[in-house]
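Q: What does the predicted 3D structure of DUF721 domain-containing protein look like?
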Amino acid sequence: MSSPRKGAKQISELANGLIDPVLARRAGINTALLGSWSEIAGEDFADCTRPEKIAWARGGGDDGGFRPGVLTIACEGARALFLTHAQGELIQRINSFFGFAAVHQIRIVQKPVSQAIRRSRTPPPLKGEAARKLEGMMEGIENDKLRQAIQRLGTAVMGKRGR
């Protein structure tokens, strides 16, 4: 196995170096928290939650020291109720991730978390020579489902050439 070149950096390190200051200024979080969220939240909440921001307390505590912040978490639908009941455990997990008492409270905001899967539209049917060529390619196929699948694939592939 070859070792990385001296002075070479991974693109993720460079991207995190650019993104972290912006996230810290705007949301009070970093890419390490976002990247590790599935382990922190656990399998019960990883798919339905996302950390939004940490609101750090202004100024210090009574003794001038650090005061923990409030983590805002986006949560989907009814799962927010279950997250409310698991707040104590989640706060402990977050603080153990940071290595100190960074968060003392969680604020839950109900909103969609998962990205909606966009279905591509059905390509227009082939016309003329392209349609005849596709039909010729599918002549020996007897299975109807396989034939339909290949026709959809062929229509999508051959239709893009004309663009």
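A (community wiki): The structure tokens above were generated from the sequence. The longest strand covers residues 103-110. The chain has a mean pLDDT of 78.
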